[in-house]
Amino acid sequence: MKDLWLWIVIAVVLVAVVAGLVGNRVGASRRRRAGGAPAAPPVAEAPPSPEPSSSTATAPEAPAVGRAVAEPDVAEAEVAPQLERPEPVAGRLARLRGRLARSGSPLGARLLAVLSRDHLTDDDWDELEETLLLADVGAGPTGEIVEALRTRVRVEGVKDPAAVRELLRSELLAIVDPTLDRSLSTERHPGPDGSGVPAVVLVVGVNGTGKTTTIGKLARVLVAEDRSVVLGAADTFRAAAADQLETWGSRVGVPTVRSDRDGADPAAVAFDAVRQGRAEGVDVVVVDTAGRLQNKAGLMDELGKITRVITKEAPLTEVLLVLDATTGQNGLTQARVFGEVAGVTGIVLTKLDGTARGGIVVAVQRELGVPVKLVGLGEGPDDLAPFDPEAFVDGLLGD
Ligand SMILES: Nc1nc2c(ncn2[C@@H]2O[C@H](COP(=O)(O)OP(=O)(O)OP(=O)(O)O)[C@@H](O)[C@H]2O)c(=O)[nH]1
Question: 7 lies in a domain?
């Protein structure tokens, strides 16, 4: 009997201890939820929704607002990332003015300061010449501008600052040459056999000038203009280049054709990209290349092979040479080599922000005899603008 009572007391104590433990755990879990812990609350404990959203209503297993709204959104974001809407292209070059102003003394401001002096002496003309040379305009074009200005100042007797500005503007505009065709060939067209083929843009240039970045930005320009695009990652030399290109493309829904193997044959990747673009009926295929300039023969071989295999599928409509505006005369030497081996049809001048050497536009056009078609104005995704001579000269001259 005594034993029986002892067992009853032990049983009661055990029940009390277990009940206490369970109570503590429930309390702790309630406190965690009250503190906004990320764990999803049990459905029954979720607060009732005052106005359930339609997604809540269509989500059968998620009647509580907190979960119904948050969880499907997160899942959707993981499955289908939101595509970005690139900025409209028109008017982008107007940014150049602000960027040049931040990059130090703009060319135009220094030229205007000299030209506005009362009586221009030989020293003033020398200073003007030096300013143009420092801005990489090049010796030939600088001589032409100074000569033309000297004549007009003498003949027209220009003094007032607004007239001086207008004079300088018209001379700079003439030297940049508004008559050149700067349009990009990016439309489908009938191929040699009469069937429609995409425009093919091959992008060449030394590494580090901004080729891959420019192609990413160009894809956005094309998407903004409702063109369908395929990118070809034929820069198989730098392992990360294909990833970089793919990331750019995926942000605007543009596919990238690439090889899984580092160091794969660039011509084969270029060919696959154009073939895919053709099969999918897209408007334009843009092909990235490696920018090794170890020697001219090697470069010629590689670009020659890429060109040959691409043209089996569709003719090349543009060969864009990407040049870094901050490299000055070095850039001109590169331009010369690529001009000889790659049949360049247009120039993309990158990093024009942050340099007072805007004159390189003139020098490089003269050097290659092909127009600057696009300019890079920064590292932002939409910092690529079609080149427009008037907007460019206005940017150089500032306010
Ligand atoms: N400020 C500025 N930076 C730029 C511009 N264009 C490109 N860049 C930067 O230049 C650097 C090199 O760009 P990439 O596109 O990787 O150069 P790449 O020519 O493809 O180089 P490789 O793949 O090695 O041949 C990156 O940091 C870009 O953000 C521009 O217009 N302005």
Answer: no
